[in-house]
Structure formats: structure tokens, C-alpha cells
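Input record, target 12 of the design panel.
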């Protein structure tokens, strides 16, 4: 049986006994129904995995004892900041979940002209908390060393300014012949993915005026939740994880 991985946003030290937070305790105690003496693996985004043993389970808490940590080498050297325009239903959840699995470093939900999702106030805060938990669950499942941060919802203009220092900034659309393989290797990449229906022409022009390079993944039109997964796969193969495979 695979040892469950649990994210906990606190400092961890070998030999320390800690109580899991409410969400993690519910997952371990009620969903997985784990018992005293069983093994877990904790991580807190410091690049280490902490083997742990459950020392107590009750209705209110789960206690674990931490062993010596071990390095986790699952993070890509390529740091990608994904700007994903909001989409309806569970499409945004899918985009976030799969982008985390594919190694994204940070995700900013965006609004655009053709965006049909409107978030304000408490509804926005609730969705951001939900998406952060989606990211946590995805990082736990895929074995990542850290959990990507879900940033506050932003306008395109503000996100363009926030990513100004990145080495390469890409706006994806199928109406260009620019190949990713022809671009110089970056260490930090900003990746802009539009909504259902795509970015408007003036938005693509604004992105290019801000320093973004238009790039295509092929002649076919990808769905808004598919595009980041495909793009991250290619980008990490060209400039990140693929560089260590011996086949790049």
C-alpha cells in the first residue's frame, strides 16, 4: 500500500510530535481510516519529505511522530507562472489540478473580455480557498516537494506588470507559427492561457505589446483546460525536467 502524503503548512523537525490540521486529520482519520502505528509522509514546501508514524487517532485530532527528513527532487528547474483565465464549472479545477501535476510554480486566475465567470467578495475568497486545496491535493498525489500558490484574481494588465521580470512570457493561440522549440531556454516563464472562446485580438496585441511572445502548440484549437497541460508538458520537456532525462 502506498504511504499517503500529507501537506502541512508548519515548520517540521525530526523527533517532533504534532497534531495534523483539521482538514488533514479528517482525511487521515475519517476518509483513509488510518490507525495508530501506520505510516505517513508529511511535507511543507521546504524541499524535504518527513516520514511519520501515527501515534494517536481520535475524533478531534490525529497525532504523528516525525522521523529524519529526506530530500525530495521532484521540482523542475523551470519556474512557470501560469495566468489562466477563469472558466466555468469544473474546468478551472481541472486546469489547476493538472497544471500542478505538470510542475507549475504559481497560478494566477485572470479575467478577460470573453470570461464568463464573475467573482467578487466572499465568493472570490471561497473559490480561491477551494482552488488552493485542489492544488494541495494534487501536490500530495503526485509527490511534489512544494505546493504551488494560487494568487488572487487579476486583470490581464495587472498580470502583465507582475510578470515583467520573467525571462520569457508566452501567450498561447493557434493563429501563429512560432514554435516553442525555436525559443531560447528560460529559467522563469510566464504562460498566458485564454478563456473559452479565446483571447480577443486586442488582448493578444496588448500581451505582445507588453513583451509576450505568441506561440502555438499546433494547428488545432485546444480547450481552455487542456491548453495549460499541453503547454506545461512541452515547456518542461524543452527547458525543465526533460533536460535531465538524457533524451532532450
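The sequence produced for target 12 reads:
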Amino acid at each position: 500500500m502506498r504511504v499517503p502524503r500529507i501537506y502541512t503548512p508548519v515548520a517540521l523537525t525530526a523527533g517532533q510530535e504534532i497534531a495534523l490540521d483539521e482538514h488533514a486529520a479528517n482525511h487521515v482519520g475519517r476518509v483513509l481510516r488510518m490507525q495508530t502505528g501506520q505510516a505517513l509522509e508529511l511535507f511543507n514546501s521546504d524541499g524535504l519529505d518527513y516520514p511519520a508514524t501515527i501515534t494517536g487517532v481520535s475524533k478531534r485530532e490525529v497525532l504523528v511522530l516525525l522521523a529524519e527528513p529526506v530530500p525530495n527532487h521532484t521540482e523542475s528547474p523551470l519556474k512557470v507562472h501560469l495566468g489562466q483565465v477563469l472558466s466555468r464549472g469544473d474546468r478551472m479545477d481541472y486546469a489547476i489540478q493538472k497544471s500542478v501535476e505538470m510542475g507549475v510554480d504559481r497560478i494566477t486566475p485572470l479575467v478577460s473580455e470573453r470570461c464568463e465567470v464573475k467573482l467578487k467578495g466572499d465568493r472570490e475568497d471561497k473559490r480561491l480557498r477551494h482552488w488552493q486545496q485542489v492544488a494541495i491535493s494534487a501536490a500530495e498525489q503526485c509527490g511534489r516537494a512544494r505546493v504551488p500558490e494560487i494568487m488572487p484574481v487579476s486583470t490581464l494588465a495587472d498580470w502583465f506588470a507582475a510578470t515583467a521580470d520573467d525571462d520569457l512570457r508566452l501567450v498561447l493561440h493557434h493563429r501563429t507559427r512560432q514554435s516553442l522549440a525555436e525559443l531560447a531556454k528560460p529559467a522563469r516563464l510566464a504562460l498566458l492561457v485564454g478563456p473559452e472562446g479565446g483571447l480577443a485580438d486586442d488582448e493578444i496585441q496588448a500581451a505582445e505589446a507588453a513583451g509576450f511572445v505568441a506561440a502555438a502548440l499546433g494547428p488545432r484549437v485546444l480547450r481552455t483546460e487542456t491548453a495549460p497541460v499541453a503547454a506545461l508538458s512541452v515547456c518542461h520537456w524543452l527547458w525543465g525536467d526533460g533536460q535531465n532525462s538524457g533524451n532532450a
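DSSP finds six helices and 13 strands in the chain.
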